[in-house]
Amino acid sequence: MANKPVFLTAEGLSKLEAELEYLTTVRRHEVAERIYQAKESGDISDNAEYEDAKNEQAFLEGRILTLGAMIRNAQIIDENGGSDTVTLGSVVTVVDEDDFEDTYTIVGSAEADPSQGRISNESPVGRALLGRRVGDTARVLVPAGEVKMRIIALNARRA
C-alpha cells in the first residue's frame, strides 16, 4: 500500500484521522500500561496477560502504520456530482432484470460498506458501473452468474 492511492470522501478521511489520533494518544498508552502491569506481576516468561498485551501492542502498531499510510496516500473523492458518468463519489440508482431497484454510492475500498449501499470502485458492481451513463446497461459477473443492471438515475440523493 506504499504508493497506492486511497480514495476517500472528506468524511472518511476525517474518520481515519480521528481513529489514528485516538490510537496514538489513548490506546497506545493503555496498552503500554497493561504491559507494565503484567511485568510487575512477576515472571514474564509464562505470563498470559503479558503475552496478550504484547500481541495487542503489535496489532495496534500495525493499525497505526496502516492508517498513517492510508492518510498519506489519500485522494479526496468529489461528492458534488456534476458528472454525467458514474465516477467515484457518484450516487447511482440501478434496476436489474427482475425490476429490483437499488441505489449505490461508489466509494474507495477503505470506505466500502455494502450494507449501507456504499460499494467499492474495485468491487464487481462498482467496476461495471464506472464510466457509464443514465440509460446504460452494465453486465456484472457475480458468483450466481451474470446480472444486467440498467442505470436509471445518477447522483440522486438517498432518502
Describe this entry's structure for a reader.
It is a single chain. The chain has three helices and seven strands, in the order E-H-H-E-E-E-E-H-E-E. Helix content is 39%, strand content 24%. Strand 3 and strand 4 form a beta hairpin. With 159 residues, the chain is an alpha/beta fold. The strands form two sheets. A five-stranded mixed sheet has the order 5-4-3-7-6. A two-stranded parallel ribbon has the order 1-2. The model has no long low-confidence stretch (mean pLDDT 89). It has helices at 10-40, 48-72, 124-129; strands spanning 6-8, 74-76, 91-96, 101-107, 118-120, 137-142, 145-154. The chain is elongated and about 70 Å long. The protein has two domains: 6-76, Orthogonal Bundle (Helix Hairpins); 91-154, Transcription elongation factor, GreA/GreB, C-terminal domain (Chitinase A, domain 3), CATH 3.10.50.
Task: Briefly summarize what is shown.
This protein has 159 residues and is an alpha/beta fold. The chain has helices spanning 10-40, 48-72, 124-129; strands spanning 6-8, 74-76, 91-96, 101-107, 118-120, 137-142, 145-154.
